[in-house]
Amino acid sequence: MQFHGTLAQTRHVVGDALGWTILPGGAASYTDWASRQTFTVGDILVFNFTNGQHDVAEVVAANYEPCTSTTPISLATTSPASLTLTTAGTHYYICTFPSHCQIGQKLTINVSASATAPTTPASPPTASPPSTAPITPASPPTTTPTLPTEPCPPTSSPSSSPSSPPTSTSGNTTPLPPPSSGAPSFTAVLPAATFLAIGIAFLSY
Question: Which of the two residues, 141 and 86, has the higher pLDDT score?
Answer without folding.
Answer: 86
